[in-house]
């Protein structure tokens, strides 16, 4: 009898090693090695001791030329969800949805399944973490108790596939979550890297064979990455991330990978008592507290006209620059890239003469939205200068533009859409790069163009001096 070989697999990244070691060389984590045997294959039962290897079968090859058909899509009925997926669920596609615990992944998917079921499609929700009664309670709380969704609480992949094969073929299958599934094809404990990979591949094969769309729910690690082997993200057709801050009611659905659609679209939801509510105009939501709050007209706030996918989004950027007695000043940022903030601060000091070495800098994107595009450089710089000079920016102005290392303000894409969204929400002026003037077709919006960041800094500094002068003269009159 041949000797059974052992492999030690990292449960964090999936790297395999011939012997146990305390630290994984792949990801650097400690104590993540698990012992697994040679029978832990992925594509079905592998050849093991006393079992002959399976012979390969022939399959037909097709020419590259031929009639191409666009993949048929099934709209879920939730406009924000369909926007992120590219217009709906593609037949036979597999999606992986990740998000922090309690963010609303199960709520989102039970709402999508109920909407499809009410439209006459068979939708199945299989939970490996909750009992059927618990899922029913959530559905009743959301007002979906009468939706014809088939429910089950099961973790065996073989039993799930056997059940799905009976009756009318489903159009949507939700697996919550993939980390709780296990298959007999591999010899490993449930939740291990090998089990997650094997279970995912078995479900993917079923989806491709039957045309059913499958959504897999994935847990995330403490740094926001989807837990388990990264190869699962390569196996599925789309990877979606459900994001949100615990202190905000906003939830952002973002596509990290999508074989059938764009990866820069976002869907915005609002968590309410009756579940997730779609937000058709995110700008109004992110700026809802600006009109009546104390932030309106106070130093350190600037409105950024951004683009998320094909949709313009207006969001407020807040900055606080305060003197510090520490040798190393603090640099804290929420909702923006910290490296981008460091670059803007360096440009302000090198090309604009702004000394920030003795100040703490705090930057926050209001509403819990995370901005990744460099067009926010100009708005961030304006908010920083406004706080430093104690000069309130115009409440009816928006800012966008990329700042280069030389201090020049570079043009950004889709300037016309940004300006149109700003005017629709009642803004009267915009500060943008020089190239945006050719795209400003509407004369109702006053456009101020800047070619260098020093021009904006000089304007805000002059505004601060004027504000302090008026305040000083007002105190003199009172005296």
Shape: globular
Largest sheet: 9 strands, mixed
Structural class: alpha/beta
Mean pLDDT: 86
Number of strands: 23
Report the radius of gyration as a whole number of Å: 27 Å
How many domain modules? 3
Q: Roughly what fraction of the amino acids lie in strands?
A: 15-25%
Low-confidence spans:
39-49
Helicity level: 25-40%
Strand order, largest beta sheet: 8-7-9-10-6-11-12-13-14
CATH topology of the largest domain: Rossmann fold
Span from first to last CA? 102 Å
What's the CATH C level of the largest domain?
Answer: Alpha Beta
CATH architectural category of the largest domain: 3-Layer(aba) Sandwich
Summary, kept brief:
The chain starts with 5 loop residues before the first strand and ends with a helix. The radius of gyration is 27 Å and the shape is globular. Helix content is 27%, strand content 24%.
């Amino acid at each position: 009898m041949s000797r059974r070989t052992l492999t030690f697999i990292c449960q964090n990244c999936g790297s395999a090693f011939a012997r146990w070691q305390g630290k994984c060389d792949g990801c650097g984590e400690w104590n993540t090695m698990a012992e697994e045997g040679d029978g832990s294959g992925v594509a079905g039962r592998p050849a093991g001791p006393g079992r002959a290897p399976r012979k390969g079968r022939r399959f037909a090859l097709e020419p590259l030329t031929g009639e191409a058909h666009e993949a048929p899509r099934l709209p879920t009925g939730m406009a924000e969800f369909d926007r992120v997926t590219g217009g709906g669920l593609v037949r036979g596609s597999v999606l992986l949805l990740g998000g922090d615990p309690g963010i609303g992944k199960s709520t989102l998917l039970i709402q999508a399944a109920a909407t499809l079921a009410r439209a006459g499609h068979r939708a199945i929700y299989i939970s490996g973490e909750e009992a059927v009664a618990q899922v029913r309670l959530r559905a009743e709380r959301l007002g979906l108790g009468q939706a014809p969704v088939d429910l089950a609480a099961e973790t065996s992949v073989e039993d799930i596939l056997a059940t799905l094969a009976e009756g009318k073929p489903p159009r949507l299958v939700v697996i919550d979550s993939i980390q709780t599934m296990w298959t007999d094809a591999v010899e490993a404990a449930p939740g291990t890297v090998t089990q997650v990979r094997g279970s995912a591949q078995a479900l993917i094969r079923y989806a491709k064979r039957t045309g059913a769309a499958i959504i897999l729910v994935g847990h995330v690690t403490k740094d926001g990455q989807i837990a388990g082997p990264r190869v699962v993200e390569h196996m599925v057709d789309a990877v979606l991330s459900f994001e949100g801050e615990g202190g905000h009611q906003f939830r952002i659905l973002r596509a990290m990978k999508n074989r059938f659609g764009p990866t820069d679209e976002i869907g915005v939801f609002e968590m309410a008592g009756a579940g997730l509510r779609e937000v058709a105009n995110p700008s109004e939501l992110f700026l809802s507290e600006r009109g009546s709050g104390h932030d309106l007209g106070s130093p350190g706030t600037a409105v950024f006209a951004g683009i998320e996918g094909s949709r313009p989004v207006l969001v407020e950027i807040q900055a606080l620059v305060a003197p510090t007695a520490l040798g190393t000043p603090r640099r804290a940022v929420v909702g923006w890239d910290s490296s981008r903030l460091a670059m803007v601060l360096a440009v302000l000091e090198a090309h604009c003469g702004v000394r920030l070495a003795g100040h703490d800098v705090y930057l926050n994107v209001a509403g819990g939205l995370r901005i990744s595009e460099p067009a926010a450089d100009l708005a961030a710089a304006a908010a920083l200068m406004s706080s430093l000079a104690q000069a309130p920016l115009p409440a009816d102005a928006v800012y966008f533009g990329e700042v280069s290392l030389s201090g020049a303000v570079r043009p950004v894409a889709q300037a016309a859409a940004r300006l149109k969204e700003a005017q629709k929400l009642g803004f009267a002026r915009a500060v943008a790069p020089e190239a945006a003037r050719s795209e400003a077709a509407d004369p109702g919006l006053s456009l101020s163009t800047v070619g260098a960041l020093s021009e904006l800094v000089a304007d805000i500094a002059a505004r601060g001096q004027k504000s302090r002068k008026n305040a000083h003269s007002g105190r003199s009159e009172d005296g």
